[in-house]
Design a protein that fits this description.
Shape: elongated
Radius of gyration: 18 Å
Helix content: 40-55%
Order of helices and strands: EEHHHHHEHEHEHHEHEH
CATH architecture of the largest domain: 3-Layer(aba) Sandwich
CATH class of the largest domain: Alpha Beta
CATH superfamily of the largest domain: HAD superfamily/HAD-like
CATH topology of the largest domain: Rossmann fold
Number of helices: 11
């Protein structure tokens, strides 16, 4: 029986609009492509999400690696909150799941200060309705490790087989499945609703 829905946040409940933000800050295509490979989709970003490196440490390391873009790296990190843009469906989706009797949790790779600022600025309209969360930077663990999912189970006394996890990255879904959860790659709100409904119906047969 499925009792718990577990969400990633970025690109599931909110848009992590890093590229659009860079464009709005005036970065050219060459700069954006360089920062994509050397910063956003890079171990440096992962260590920031893990809570091991501070923003200033990440800026320094990234600037040492890409000195031609030091100014842009600092400007982007200083405006990181602008990348967080809630999807229209997120609040009502969580409220609907709650009305159907599901518990709703978050398991997210996220820098601590950005998470808090997102909550305080109302960028997580779904947040008042969730039952709990694991934030990577607070437990110093990252998806797709089994350990971060175990931290969620332990903190809230959850059974893995009673959970469904949605994440936009296949590797994180694989980690959740390895931890014993049901899990789907998030490919849009409507598809996720169908995935959940299909799973619940199959388990009720």
């Amino acid at each position: 029986m499925i009792k718990n829905i577990v969400f990633d946040i970025g690109n599931v409940l909110v848009d992590f609009a890093w590229k659009a933000t860079m464009e709005e800050l005036g970065f050219d295509k060459e700069c954006i492509d360089t920062l994509d490979k050397g910063f956003i989709n890079n171990d440096l970003w992962d260590e920031m999400d893990r809570g091991v490196l501070s923003f200033n440490e990440v800026v320094k390391l990234a600037t040492d690696k890409m000195p031609a873009y030091g100014k842009e790296i600092r400007l982007f990190v200083d405006n990181l909150i602008l990348t967080i843009r809630p999807f229209d469906y997120s609040e009502n989706w969580v409220k609907d799941l709650k009305s159907k009797g599901f518990n709703v949790y978050l398991c997210t790779n996220y820098p601590d200060s950005t998470f808090e600022e997102s909550v305080n600025r109302g960028l997580f309209p779904f947040y008042p309705y969730i039952d709990g969360k694991i934030v990577s930077s607070r437990v110093h663990l990252l998806k797709p490790s089994v350990e971060i999912f175990n931290a969620l189970f332990d903190k809230y006394n959850l059974k893995a087989g009673e959970c469904v996890f949605f994440d936009d990255k296949q590797r994180n879904v694989n980690g959740a499945i390895k931890a014993g959860m049901n899990a789907f790659v998030f490919e849009g709100y409507e598809k996720a609703c169908k995935d959940l409904q299909g799973l619940v119906e199959s388990l009720n047969k």
